Amino acid sequence: MTALAMAAEFDDVAGWTADAVEQLGVRHAVPAACRGSASPAALAWLAEACELSRRITLLDVGAGVGGPAAWAAERLGVRPILLEPMPAARRAAARLFGLPVIAGDGRRIPLRTGSVDAAWCLGVLCTLRDKAAVLGEIHRVLKPGASLGLLVVVARGP
Ligand SMILES: C[S@@+](CC[C@H](N)C(=O)[O-])C[C@H]1O[C@@H](n2cnc3c(N)ncnc32)[C@H](O)[C@@H]1O
């Protein structure tokens, strides 16, 4: 995606999403803030496969407006850390869910090596050219043997 398209899709629309949720009501927050992973059934499957449990730290790389991380916090009691490069998306996640959000890029995660219990990266790799750099950084910050949950949209044709 071009930088302009990324900003329109992941920054402007993120801000509008938070505005809409404030008008519609808080029960709409999680579904509205899942941008690429909106199915609760898919998140439940992924959470089980990643063996997420209470109080573990879950780093959500490219967390967007924070719906998946908020879902995992509410349902499973994990402690999410959101990493997101787009300012309006970060503000929306903080406004809607009060979750800790770090400003940053998945290619340079500002966390210590081996410091994270589990990570998600949902609907992010499919928007990036340099997928290996993001995967390498996530691998660096995860504890040895920790789980990584990915959602990647794969084109099967032109
Ligand atoms: C389709 S949205 C998915 C958001 C969220 N993971 C979800 O499932 O609701 C893709 C997200 O990846 C973020 N993103 C784009 N480039 C990134 C990068 N280099 N590092 C981390 N996140 C990035 C975008 O800002 C956007 O919030």
Describe what you observe in this structure.
Strand 4, helix 6 and strand 5 (142-151) form a beta-alpha-beta unit. The protein has a single domain (3-151), classed as Rossmann fold (3-Layer(aba) Sandwich), CATH 3.40.50. By secondary structure, it is an alpha/beta fold. It starts with a helix and ends in a 7-residue tail after the last strand. The chain is built from six helices and five strands, in the order H-H-H-E-H-E-H-E-E-H-E. The protein is globular. The longest helix has 22 residues, at 3-24. A five-stranded parallel β-sheet has the order 3-2-1-4-5. The model has no long low-confidence stretch (mean pLDDT 94). It binds S-adenosylmethionine (SAM).
What is the domain total for the residues? 1
User: Average pLDDT, to the nearest integer?
Assistant: 94
Strand order of the largest sheet: 3-2-1-4-5
Give the CATH level 1 class. Alpha Beta
The biggest beta sheet reads:
5 strands, parallel
- The secondary-structure element order is HHHEHEHEEHE
Looking at this structure, what is the CATH superfamily? Vaccinia Virus protein VP39
Please count the helical segments: 6
What structural class do helix, strand and pairing data support?
Answer: alpha/beta
**How far apart lie the N and C ends?**
16 Å
- Based on the structure given, which CATH architecture is correct? 3-Layer(aba) Sandwich
Secondary structure: helix percent: 40-55%
Oligomer: single chain
* Rg over CA atoms: 15 Å
Proportion of beta-strand residues? 15-25%
